[in-house]
Design goal:
binds pyridoxal-5'-phosphate, 12 strands, 7-stranded mixed sheet, 396 residues, 3-stranded antiparallel sheet, alpha/beta
Length: 396
């Protein structure tokens, strides 16, 4: 394919040039095991320490509160399962939301089978949790609140500071899956009373398979991977030095460029949203109109099957995604779109476009022009659309 327009940055991002440069020496030159005591390994150890400081700085954490993992899914599993185990004597109740990533939802479902009780908070039509509902869900045996910072499908930002405040006032730990937010929007673990935070390198132009779990000092947390004494004996396994170094560099760059990048992405996103809503009829924007990730636009087009749209976009070299349905290969509509109250038939016609630093206005205009054509074409073949048009356009 001669040209790819990559608008699936919520799924993964391209490793940036400076991140790659930073990683390369750790494959063949400075390849020592950072746990070793000889001088040769010293460079690797120093690089890991530097990366830990970079990862911490982005969220106002202390260096020693950062633990390196193999990505967002591991961090979510670790935070939730280890908290459940460590605090079981206090209680076995966990609060989360209905729109979490499966790394959180399936972990909570697993814990339910182990005798824990989980409250899955509803969200409103924009995808926001209600602080009142959160407040009333807290019980004396609640040990953990896990609510994501930003939703990966619809981009909505959750009120982290207010959730943290409530958690703190009630003596409940607060974990946030910040995989979509880390490096994209400002987060401060102290201001927001965050006790644990998950992030993943490949969502911020860093490498895949490298993530962090921030754990506030004083939080009792059990080891999740048992073995050697790495990561203060809490997460065993020889450190993924190139991945860690790449994560650190990506975090540093994300911090430096956040303001400008976010301003630019927001401008492109607004152009995209405005054009799509104005030029393609029977379309809705999913997620909060303004309180959303700078790079996320999510739509539902009536009378359209998301998959067919993706296939036609793919023929033009446009990479996009349709909810999370395709992950299972099944036709289940996304749990997030159902949670914001969309009926199945509308949720099926979803399209998520997530931009990057590299996206241009030209890309956006090209995609909207083509999308208009694709949707007209698909609707022309849809019996439901034909029916709808016969009945009159005034009711849609
Ligand atoms: C991508 C993602 C994850 C999983 O991260 P991996 O590093 O791919 O395991 C978890 N939560 C959210 C919100 C994500 O977007």
């Amino acid at each position: 394919m001669d040209r790819v327009i990559y608008l699936d940055n919520a799924a993964t991002t391209r490793v940036s040039e400076p991140v790659l440069e930073e990683m390369l020496p750790f494959f063949r030159q400075t390849y020592g095991n950072p746990s070793a005591i000889y001088t040769f390994a010293g460079e690797a150890k120093k690089a890991v320490d530097r990366a830990r400081a970079q990862a911490a700085e982005l969220i106002g954490a202390k260096t020693e509160e950062i633990y390196f993992t193999a990505g967002g899914s591991e961090s979510d599993n670790w935070a939730i399962k280890a908290t459940a185990e460590a605090y079981a004597a206090k209680g076995k109740h966990i609060i989360t939301s209905k729109i979490e990533h499966h790394a959180v939802l399936h972990t909570c479902e697993y814990l339910e089978k182990q005798g824990y009780e989980v409250t899955y908070l509803d969200v409103d039509g924009d995808g926001k949790i209600s602080l009142e509902k959160l407040q009333s869900a807290i019980r004396p045996d609640t040990i953990l609140i896990s609510v994501m910072a930003a939703n990966n499908e619809i981009g909505t930002l959750e009120p982290l500071a207010q959730i943290g405040k409530l958690a703190h006032e009630n003596g409940v730990l607060f974990h946030t899956d910040a995989v979509q937010a880390y490096g994209h929007i400002p987060i401060d673990v102290d201001d927001m009373n965050i006790d644990m935070l998950s992030a993943s390198g490949h969502k911020l132009n860093g490498p895949k398979g490298a993530g962090i779990l921030y754990i506030r000092r004083g939080v009792k947390i059990r080891s999740y991977i048992h073995g050697g004494a790495q990561e203060r004996s809490r997460r065993a396994g020889t450190l993924n030095v190139p991945g860690i170094v790449g994560f650190g560099k990506a975090a540093q760059l994300a911090g430096e460029t956040m303001e400008e990048r976010s301003r630019r992405e927001t401008e492109l996103r607004e152009h995209l949203i405005e054009r799509v809503l104005a030029e393609i009829p029977h379309t809705r924007l999913n997620g909060h109109r303004t309180d959303r990730l700078p790079n996320n636009a999510s739509f539902c087009f009536r009378f359209i099957e998301g998959e067919s749209m993706l296939i036609l976009l793919d023929r033009l070299g446009i990479c996009a995604s349709s909810g999370s349905a395709c992950t299972s290969g099944a036709l289940d509509p996304s749990h997030v779109l159902l949670a914001i109250g969309l009926p199945h038939e509308i949720a099926h016609g979803s399209l998520r476009l997530t931009l990057s630093e590299e996206t241009t206005m030209q890309d956006i205009d090209f995609v909207v022009d083509e999308l208009k054509r694709i949707i007209e074409r698909l609707r022309a073949m849809s019996p439901l659309y034909e029916d709808f048009m016969k009945k009159g356009k005034n009711n849609g």
